Structures are given as C-alpha cells and as structure tokens.
Here is the input.
Amino acid sequence: MNTLGHYIDGQRVTSTSGRDAPVYNPATGEEASRVAMASADEARSAVTSAQAALPGWSRISPLKRARIMFRFKALLERDADKIARQLSLEHGKVLSDAMGELTRGMEVVEFACGIPHLLKGEHSLNVGTGVDSYSMMQPVGVCAGISPFNFPAMVPMWMFPVSIACGNTFVMKPSEKDPTVPMMLAELLTEAGLPQGVFNVVNGDKEAVDVLLTDDRVQAVGFVGSTPIAEYIYETASKHGKRVQALGGAKNHMVIMPDADPEQVVNSLLGAAYGSAGERCMAISVAVCVGDEVADNLVRDLKSEVKKLTVGPGTGQIPEPHMGPLVTREHAAKVRDYISTGAEEGATLVVDGRDFVAKDNEQGYFVGATLFDHVKPGMRIYQEEIFGPVLCVVRVGSYEEALAMVNAHEYGNGTAIFTRDGDTARQYTEQVQVGMVGVNVPIPVPMAFHSFGGWKRSLFGPLHMHGPDGVRFYTRMKTVTARWPTGIRAGAEFSMPTMK
Ligand code: NAD
Here is the structure.
C-alpha cells in the first residue's frame, strides 16, 4: 500500500521514522493509503531545508515572488478537478464543495499575487529638517503551519501563499487524516518555479508539531484546529519566542428575528448547518429564534426539509448528494453520542440521523442530518462543538436575550443575524462579541483580501489570517530615520530630539 512521505528540498522523500498511520476513504470505510508519521529528526530536516533557502528567497524581488504565485494559480486551475476529487475521496465532502474549498484557497493565492503592492511600506518626507523617515516590511524568517482535516486545501492556503510571497520560507504539517492534497500543492509550487526548500511538507503528529513549536530557527507558527490544541500551540510556541496565530473551534449562532424572511432563513440554515456534514468551523450549529412563533414555524418548515436531505459518497453519485460522510469512524461515533446526550439532556429530537445507513456503502462513516428543538444553554449539545450535521434550535424572548446568549458562549468565531430591520442588524454587528458577522448571510467567511479570524476562545493571538493581517503576521516592520549632509547641521544635542 502506498505510504505518503514528506516533501523536503523540492522533492518527495520517503520517511525513515518507522511510524505511519492509515488514511481512509470515509465513504467506504476502507483504508485507501498510509501516511508517514515524521520523527523529530525528519521535522528538523524540513526546518533545515527552509532555513537554507531563506537567505536567497527573502532577498528576491517581490515582483519575482509574485510571478511564481501567478504561475502557481494557473497550475491550480489546470489541476483543479484532480485536486478536488482527491480531496473529496479523503475528506468525504461532496465534489462541488471540494471545488468551492479549492476556489477559496486559490483566492488567497490571487491576493498573494499582489505582494509588491502590499509590501510597499510607508514614507514621510521631512519629519525633521532634512530628515526623512520610512518603514519597510521584511520577512520574519522560517514559518510553520499546522492545519486541520476539514479544509486540507484551503486552510494551508490561508497561510503559505502570503507567507512565502512575503519572502519567508515555510514548513507545513497537514492533518494526518487527509494529507495527500497538501503534497499535490507542494509539487505544483515546484513546477511553478519555487526554489527548493522554500516550501516543505512534513507529515505526522505531535512529535513533528513539537519540533516546529520549539525549534529556535522557526520564527512564526500558524495553526488552525480544535481549541485545546490551539491553546497548547499558542502557549508552547509563544514560550519559545515565536509569533503565533492559533485558530480554534466554534459554535456559531444564527439569530432569527420575527421580521426575517422565513424562506431565506430555512434555505440559509440548510446549507450552513448541513453543508460539508457540518464539518466547517463556520457552520451554523445553533439557530436562536426570537419568540416562540418564529421557532414553531422554523422547526415545522425545517423538519420536512431536513428529512429530504440526501446523504452519500462525495464523488461518483448523480445527482450529487447534499452531504457526504464524516471524516473518521471515531468522529461519526462521537457525533452519534452527542445526539444521544442531547436527547437525554431533555432537548426535543425532531429529526434523528443516528441510524442513517448509506445504500451500497454500509461501512461508510455516515450520520444523517439531525435537528433538535428546545435546546438550552448548559446542555452539552449547546456548549460543545459537535462538528457534525446537528442543528440546535434555541428559543429566547427578545433580541437582548439572544445577544447576551451569543456573547456568553466561550467561542466567538462566526455568527449571523437574519432581519429586515437595519437598526437591529446594526446594533448586532456592533455589540456581538464574535469575529465574523453576517447580516442575512449565514456563513460570513471574509474574502481573501480581508482577514479571517474569531474572538474569544476561537483565536489565540492578535492577528487574523490572510488579508492585511496575514501580511502583518508574516512581516516585521523596520522604521528608518535618515538625515543627509545637506540637512541643517546642529551641534551635539543632549535633550530628547524634537521638531523645533
Ligand atoms: P485538531 O486540533 O485535532 O488537529 C489540528 C492539527 O493539530 C492537525 O494537524 C493535528 O495533527 C495536530 N494535532 C492534533 N493533536 C495534537 C497535539 N496533541 N499536539 C500537537 N499537534 C496536534 O483539529 P481537527 O479535528 O483536525 O479539525 C477540526 C477542528 O478545527 C474543529 O474544532 C474546527 O472548529 C477547527 N477549525 C477551526 C477553524 C477556524 O478558522 N477557527 C477552521 C477550520 C477548522
């Protein structure tokens, strides 16, 4: 069986660690391949490669770095079908969704193509007599990225295109559950003309990650995954002197006001709660209905629509199902357990997806779409991230109660409000303690030229990913103050220099 190794110094390398792990096709439950688990030495050799490539790459003109990004983008378009198919096979998401993910990743590459403009810095003439001041944005050095299973193409592309366009070199540690696509991206970067060592992939688990968090040669660490690991990454890498952005889990609420358009709400909730089988950090997992009438109507309308959702393999079925399997057998079992817990906790189980079995794919990791009503804060299904096709309806009496509930939750990744009232929408966007807010938009994922990130325990570190924050994260600012001999000469000055 094929075992995926690493990508170091511009080529695939076979692992010598003696450790590997299975990679499954979640639609069939079969082991499709294996992936190496790097030893600490292998992870260090990837850092060595990135360190060796740094002096050359960091001094290349941003124009030339941008041209490689343009070629990379063209190659991604050429191979998009192949990449999306592989992504769907290992992750389980349906093919059109895999293509959507890839497109959102390619948009970050497009953003990185504009790097000469983004690195222009600032200049002030005559800050003193004959004195000019300017700021330049320089690369930080070797950077590392650690990504989750649910976006094996897009999340790595939130990080490395901006990082390497800024002049850094990079070591990527993808999720061990669906590792093939990042390797394909590495090969395309080499084909696009990226010098060897600028982008490396090391496959593995905690052993490899810990090297990236503690090795003195790594300057910055980007992470996306669950909150406990994000917190560990933030603490460990910060303690070792690195700048860190660590994005964690989510529980995204959609507030539904009595004046919202009911049809728009139902359609938005179906896609946002059940798309990608709920394995999205921006999935809506809680619908907060303001008023019992709103909730009664919503649950009535959703119930019939949720039952109609089709579930099946991500590729090879016509018509394409609405959602595919969950990523692993363990994760599917965990989601089923959450559904049982919710019923035991007293929530009303309106649609139960626990017993769903996919025809001809009985061994696949499928869970059917599930709907709960009368969910209350304090229940585990409300507090914890389920990361599956489970939507919880919560009932509140007023806008203020809805806002307070969203703000009290430990996560603050995304949220949405559905209303026709501009005042309410404006208040919500201003008062809610969440990093990304939609107004009648259920999944408000910012475009690549804005920045992506949550608040509270959904993000550790000050800067969001890609967009302007991405450039700030991957550069270090230096400010130069320069006086030339033609400036007015003064004698020795012993007091704080000021503009006289
Ligand atoms: P995860 O935290 O289990 O794994 C993420 C990465 O960390 C993987 O590469 C994994 O190998 C590594 N890892 C796991 N345990 C580790 C440990 N003990 N030490 C060091 N590294 C370790 O997350 P996942 O299950 O792959 O992804 C799902 C999670 O990611 C969900 O919580 C989801 O909300 C979150 N997520 C968040 C965002 C966001 O933007 N905030 C985006 C996508 C996913």
Summary: The longest strand covers residues 131-139. Residues 146-151, 155, 173, 175-176, 205-206, 209, 224-226, 229, 247-250, 281, 385, 387, 413, 454, 458 surround nicotinamide-adenine-dinucleotide (CB under 6 Å). The longest helix spans residues 40-59.
